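re: ur question from earlier - yeah i can do the single chain one, its not a big deal. heres the input i used so u can compare w yours
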Amino acid sequence: MQQGSGKCVAVVVTYNKLDYLKECLNRLQKCRQFLQKIVVVNNASTDGTRDYLMELSTAESLIDVLNEKENLGGAAGFNAGIKKAMEFDADAIWVMDDDCQVEPSTVDELQCAASSLVADGVEWGVLASNVRWTDGGPAVMNIPKTVATWNDRAETNLIRIEHSSFVSMYINTSMVKKFGYPIKDFFIWGDDVEYSYRIASKYPSYCVMSSEVVHNMVANAKVDIMTDSANRVPRYFYDVRNNFFISKRIGKKETLRFVYGFLKKIIRVSFHGQARAKKVRVLLRGFLAGLVFNPTVEKFQ
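and the output i got, formated as tokens:
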């Protein structure tokens, strides 16, 4: 592809991953020819991130920092970061976690895809990168869900998607004006799925296979309450509650599929592994909360 055009603001949300953040921002600064600004949302990190960002933003005008007073979760972080990014009147917002490793080609390919779609008269919604793990294989947590007719533009290296993750998601700012912001009340998990589905269900959205990014996770595996560490079990409350809400938004068929999967998970957790009673309680709390969970979708103003 030829070099793309358009103004882009990158948004990075971080919490207590200073070494990863430094690598992420070092790489993003090498993409400056494509960027108008880099917005970093620091979710009240306690590992020296605040001091590092203060020093960096003083020396580097490309960096704009939001230091939150408390950790309100990744969902609220992306909510705040996208709001800030919209102040710069960009054409697109490129969001990512602090453990993303990007290259100039990552954003170049996204911008080229956007330009190609616009040239074809397509009002696109979101574009997802091809997320890899450190060994070069697919990052299993970040594989987008495709639509039934996923190959309508496969010849141009674009795979049509139903939703994707915030690990290198390129958002058309006109969509933010139409659909508002990610739901900050999710706290963690599912906010990217809900937001990208909200947009992609109305406007064509794609995974750009040539836009590769590395997600530098410790392990290349999906989160699973069966195998996760004991101190992380409470956060599965949000996994159940948020995904229950998303399934209800999609429709009855998806809700029934969610409930069936939830019941299977309860049975598995009840008979296998450690801390079974604690895990069942967390899952049931999440399900009950999901019955009434109805967060507000903030509109663009």
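The domain at 8-215 is CATH 3.90.550.60 (Spore Coat Polysaccharide Biosynthesis Protein SpsA; Chain A). not sure if urs matches, ping me
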